[in-house]
Specification:
This is Ferredoxin. By secondary structure, this protein is an alpha/beta fold. Among the domains are: about 10-125, Orthogonal Bundle (Fumarate Reductase Iron-sulfur Protein, Chain B, domain 2), CATH 1.10.1060; about 340-445. It has 23 helices and 7 strands. Helix 9 (about 145-160) packs across helix 10, helix 12 crosses helix 23 (about 435-445) and helix 14 (about 260-280) crosses helix 16. The termini are far apart.
C-alpha cells in the first residue's frame, strides 16, 4: 500500500501490546488505525468536541470506533482489492468532519482527521477527484481572479435558480449562501527596510480567507502587533516564486485528500519562510485550521526538518500575545469596551490542541470584559462539508447540538469566533455576526496606541 501521508511516527506503535489487532496490510498506517482500543469513549455524549457525527446520528457506525472497524476490514482484505473505493468504507468515513476531537479526547488519541485525509487520497487515486472537490480545493487559485469570482458568487447567492443549478450540477447546497470575497483584498503595509535584526521582528501570515474575504482581520492584527512595538512583516512569496499567486498552507487541498498539491503549497510556504526559520523569527497567523495544520498535518507530509522548525515557530495571534505577555514583553494596555456579554465559540482544532487557554488569557487583558466560552462540539460547517448538498442538513444539526441553542439563549450577546467556518455557520444558523479576536483587540486599543 502506497501511503500519501507519512505515518512513520507510528512505526513502533503496538509493540508488545498490539492494541486491538494491527491489520495485515497498510504498514504504519494500519498501526495508526489500530491505536483505537474500542473503549467506546467516542460513543458517549459528555461536553467536549468528540464526536459530532455520532452525537447527531446516535449511530455507533459514525463514531471513530465504528470507522476503525471498517478500516480494519478494508486493510485485512475483507472489502476486496479496491477497498478504498468501496461503498462500505465511504459510508463509514462520510460524516467525519476532521474536527480532531478524538486526537485529544480519545484515550489513545486516535487521529481520525488524518486517517480521513489518507482515506480520501486513496479514494481519489482509485476513482479520481470529483468536480466539486476539485473546485472547492482550488479556491486559493480561483481567488487570483477575485473580482470575477466575487461577481459570480454574489450572482449565485441572489439568484435561486442559479443556486439550484449549482446543486444539480456540482452538489453545492442551494439553501446555503457561499462566502463572498471582499471588495478589495488585504494589502500589506509597506515596511521600512532595516538591515538590523530585532527580537521584536514578527512575520504575519495572512491566510487565504483573511486575505480575500475578511481583510479587516489581517489589518487589525497588524495594527495591534505594531502598537505593541513589534516590527511586523507580512509573509510574501519567495523572490523566484510566482508573485501573482498568494501563499497558502494547502489546507483546502489537504482536507479533500489532494495531498500532492497540498505538499507543493507547503513547500512554497517553507521556501518563503526560509529566512524567518533560519533566524528564529515567530510566524503569527489568524485562522486556526491553517495555523494548526502547519503545526500538525504538515508533519505528515514528509517535508523534513523545515516542517518541524515551522511547527515550533508558528503561533495563532492569541497564542503569541499570551506567550509574550507571560514573558513581560507584551505590555500594551487596553481600554474597556462598551459593556455587554460576549459568547466565545472555539474552533475545533483550537480545542483539540488546547489553544483555548491562550484565548482566555488574552481576553482577560481587556479591562472589565465579560465573556463566556460556549461548551460545544463542532459547529458543523467544517470547511466545505456544510456546503455540500448531502451534508447541509446534518451540518446544521451539528450546530444545534450546543452552539445555536447557546446563541439563542443570550440573544443580545456579542459573538467571538476565530474560525472562518465557524463565523459562516453562525451567520447562517443564528443570523449573528461573529468577530475575530484581532478586531476586538483593535477596538480596545487606547487612543494614540494604534500604528
Amino acid at each position: 500500500m502506497k501511503h500519501h501521508l507519512d505515518w512513520s511516527a507510528y512505526e513502533t506503535a503496538g509493540q508488545g501490546d498490539a492494541y486491538a489487532g494491527i491489520p495485515a496490510a497498510g504498514g504504519d498506517f494500519a498501526k495508526a488505525v489500530a491505536v483505537c482500543i474500542s473503549d467506546k469513549l467516542c460513543q458517549r455524549t459528555p461536553k467536549g468536541v468528540m464526536c459530532p457525527s455520532f452525537r447527531v446520528t446516535g449511530d455507533a457506525a459514525h463514531s471513530p470506533g465504528g470507522r476503525v472497524k471498517v478500516l480494519k476490514a478494508a486493510l485485512n482484505g475483507e472489502l476486496g482489492t479496491r477497498a478504498f473505493a468501496s461503498d462500505e468504507l465511504a459510508q463509514a468515513m462520510e460524516l467525519c468532519v476532521g474536527c480532531k476531537g478524538c486526537k485529544r479526547e480519545c484515550a489513545n488519541q486516535v487521529d481520525m482527521a488524518a486517517i480521513k485525509i489518507e482515506y480520501q487520497a486513496q479514494n481519489n487515486a482509485l476513482k479520481g477527484v470529483s468536480h466539486r472537490d476539485w473546485l472547492m480545493a482550488h479556491l486559493p487559485d480561483w481567488l487570483r481572479y477575485r473580482r470575477t469570482l466575487r461577481s459570480l458568487i454574489r450572482w449565485r447567492n441572489r439568484a435561486p435558480w442559479l443556486a439550484q443549478l449549482g446543486e444539480f450540477v456540482l452538489g453545492i447546497a442551494a439553501g446555503r449562501r457561499l462566502p463572498e470575497p471582499a471588495a478589495a483584498a488585504y494589502k500589506a503595509p509597506s515596511v521600512r527596510s532595516a538591515p538590523d535584526k530585532s527580537d521584536r521582528d514578527v512575520v504575519l501570515f495572512v491566510d487565504t480567507f483573511a486575505m480575500h474575504f475578511e481583510p479587516d482581520i489581517a489589518e487589525a492584527a497588524h495594527q495591534v502587533l505594531s502598537a505593541a512595538g513589534y516590527r511586523v512583516a507580512t509573509l510574501q512569496a519567495a523572490p523566484d516564486d510566482d508573485p501573482g499567486r498568494a501563499l497558502c498552507c494547502g489546507r483546502t487541498w489537504l482536507s479533500l485528500g489532494q495531498v500532492e498539491r497540498a505538499r507543493a503549497e507547503a513547500r512554497r510556504m517553507q521556501d518563503a519562510l526560509r529566512p524567518a526559520l533560519e533566524s528564529g523569527i515567530p510566524i503569527v497567523g489568524l485562522e486556526p485550521s491553517c495555523i494548526l495544520s502547519l503545526r500538525d498535518d504538515h508533519l505528515k507530509l514528509g517535508l523534513g526538518e523545515r516542517a518541524v522548525a515551522l511547527s515550533r515557530q508558528v503561533y495563532l495571534l492569541e497564542e503569541f500575545i499570551a506567550r509574550e505577555h507571560d514573558r513581560k514583553r507584551f505590555t500594551l494596555e487596553f481600554k474597556p469596551l462598551p459593556p455587554g456579554r460576549t459568547l466565545v465559540q472555539g474552533h475545533c482544532h483550537q480545542k483539540a490542541v488546547g489553544a483555548m487557554k491562550s484565548l482566555r488569557k488574552v481576553l482577560r487583558l481587556i479591562p472589565e470584559f465579560e465573556f463566556e466560552f460556549i461548551e460545544s462540539s463542532c459547529c458543523g460547517m467544517a470547511g466545505s462539508f456544510g456546503l455540500e448538498a448531502e451534508h447541509a442538513d446534518i451540518s446544521m444539526r451539528m450546530a444545534e447540538i450546543d452552539l445555536l441553542p447557546a446563541l439563542r439563549g443570550v440573544p443580545d450577546a456579542a459573538v467571538l469566533a476565530n474560525g472562518f467556518s465557524c463565523r459562516h455557520q453562525i451567520r447562517e444558523g443564528a443570523q449573528r455576526q461573529a468577530r475575530h479576536v484581532a478586531l476586538l483587540l483593535r477596538d480596545a486599543l487606547k487612543q494614540g496606541a494604534s500604528c
